[in-house]
Maleylpyruvate isomerase family mycothiol-dependent enzyme
Amino acid sequence: METAQFIDVLDREGQSLAEAAAAAGVDAKVPTCPQWQVRDLLRHTGMVHRWATAFVVEGHTAYHPDGGLPDLDGDALLEWFQEGHRALVDALSAAPPDLDCWHFMPAPSPLEFWARRQAHETTVHRVDAESARGAVGPVELAVAVDGIDELLRSFHARPKSRVRTDRPRVLRIRATDTEATPDAVWTVRLSSEPPVAERGGSGAAADCELTGTAEQLYLSLWNRQPFPLVTGDASLAELWREKSAVTWN
């Protein structure tokens, strides 16, 4: 996917998130994040959007803290979320290709990093908002495939990943609905170090394989739903479930 496509995804998914949040109401529980109500979801995602916007607009070349969660609720909170989402979309759309700012995972450019990261951040939280409403819409195939790739090859390649094993193991992720993307298979090598994932590598023996549509795997790997099909050593799927959560701090 290209930067412009990521921005389009961010735009669309943020609007859908706001619509679902308004329909559910800020008091509604979020089934995919049991510790949250919709107000928590709006506060968190809106804060992240503003945090990302600051890097793009202000050009911070080192880590810059977020602005914290707002003391807002109800309609005022929803409006605050919408304003922050729109500001991020506009900032990314107006940013130059050679934008120079801090980013926390490898990427072809800082601009592509922030567009991609916020597209997936917002897609996953749109699913959360729709789960509170009671009807969850689909995740586009290309978005799901790219999101699996980002999670496996970028997020969990970082030293802070807790998905580790005492002895080397191999976990395979295989999407079943990607005829146009035959390499939508990932081999994740687990050890006492951060996971090392490669695209493809299906010839290597795997201790456990997770199989399903790209959308199912995307949401499962983000711990939004159970894994569709687990073959082999199910303890590795459970390890992922227990240790893979990405926390803000």
